[in-house]
Amino acid sequence: MPRPEEELIGILKKNGVDITASLPCEKFKTLLAMLPGAFAHVPLTREEEGIGICAGASLAGRRPAMFVQSSGIGNMINALLSLTQFYGLPLALFVSRRGVYQEKIAAQLPMGKRLPAILRGAGISFTIVNTAKDLALVRKDLPAVYRKGLVHAFLLSPKVWERSECSSTSSRFKVQSSTCEEAKLTTTGLRISLPSLTRFEIIKLLAPYLDGKVVVSNLGWPSRELYAVKHQLSNFYMLGSMGMATPVGLGIALSTSKEVVVIDGDGSILMNPGTLATAAYAGPKNLTIVAIDNGAYGSTGNQPTLAAACVDLETVARGFGFRNTEKASTAEEIAAAWEGRGNGPAFLHILAKPGNAEVPNIPLNALEIRDQVRKFLKG
After folding, report:
1. 243's torsion region: left (phi>0), alpha (psi -120 to 50) or beta?
2. What's the pLDDT tens digit per position in 224-240?
């Protein structure tokens, strides 16, 4: 009685996997439908955000696994290298390998055929699983992923699932308690003062509220400014992977009872806006996203973002399902927004003036940052 989906889930459980994330693929749809019943599971809007969520979960001591199709690897390479590998975080990727076996969609062929070469070129190890019998290779190679802190891809041919007798009628994903159904999708309107503070000044105002909390800060100048104002062992400084601060914070929030604050920016959020939908759906009550919106890409020369012209990030967050949002600009408004934000997931949209403070680089490498945050979360 071939039941490869159950066999793979059993292998994952034996290796301590306790959180999964996925995007759909018709070739292993039964497996995907079974995951929420076996693990804490996060449905994704884009592959790249899953890398951040899994990185955050790993920082908090969990063992994550991601399920995507081969075309999605192209959306993940930078984050895999500049976040997961860079910080030495383990991640098992289970990839539905399209374009190599009875493929009917021509557009799947180029990525499917070149996938091993792409992974090899990126320095990502992989295991080719062509049949259900080859799941023994997963059993052999998976333990090293979590023991050594590796990124490793298991390339699963559609042939693995042929003649499987597994079926699942459960396809509703659930992560903690969703807030989407309770969201009030009305816009709040611009009821605040014009920007008068820089991001550095705003971080100074926020510093007393951050004490003892897990803080994930956007890459570049925001992290440098946070280090200068409020360095603590619980700060996770993003050194690369633009657009991934909120996903990392979400992954941590789903894996700890400690309060998590993300200091993100307009350019970063616009690069991965779907994560707001994922966060609203997942509904972690311990997550606050502080979007410091100066309408500029501050780390690359203050080129304007679309938030400077036509995008209201608070309205975007509410449209994605956030119930608790606040907008602020002055010191008084920022204090009131923080105190009135309610349970998470909360979204604070703080308008700022462009500009960076002259502060030194962070004197910590990626592994030192990782280890400090892990130690805090374990404590």
Report:
1. left
2. 999 999 999 999 999 98
Burial (CB < 10 A; 0-12, 13-18, 19+), residue 137, is middle
Question: What stretch of H or E contains 20?
Answer: strand 19-22
User: Distance from CA of residue 137 to its chain's centroid?
Assistant: 28
User: Was domain 180-378 assigned CATH 3.10.580.10?
Assistant: no
φ, ψ for residue 119, nearest 5 deg: -65, -40
- What's the pTM? 0.90
C-alpha–C-alpha distance, residues 48 and 271, integer Å = 10
Query: What is the residue-wise DSSP string for 187-240?
Result: -----SPPP-SBHHHHHHHHHHHHTTSEEEE-TTHHHHHHHHHH--TTEEE--S
| Fold of the CATH domain 4-161 | Rossmann fold (3.40.50)
Q: 235-264 burial by CB neighbour count: b if 16+ within 10 A, else e?
A: bbbbbebbbbbbbbbbbbbbbbebbbbbbb
Q: Phi then psi for 277, rounded to 5 degrees?
A: -65, -45
Q: How far apart are CA 20 and CA 35, in angstroms?
A: 7
Residue 169 — pLDDT band, cuts 50, 70, 90? low
Residue 37, CB half-sphere, CA atoms under 13 Å: how many? 15
pLDDT digits (tens, 9 = 90+) for 52-67: 999 999 999 999 999 9
The Cα–Cα gap between 203 and 290 comes to 10
What pLDDT was estimated at residue 163? 85
DSSP 311-351: --HHHHHHHTT-SEEEEE-SHHHHHHHHHT--SSSEEEEEE
Which whole-number Å values give the CA distances from 365 to 83, 187, 361, 372, in the listed order?
Answer: 13, 41, 11, 11
Mean pLDDT of 182-210: 75
Domain boundaries for CATH 3.40.50.970 within the chain: 4-161, 180-378
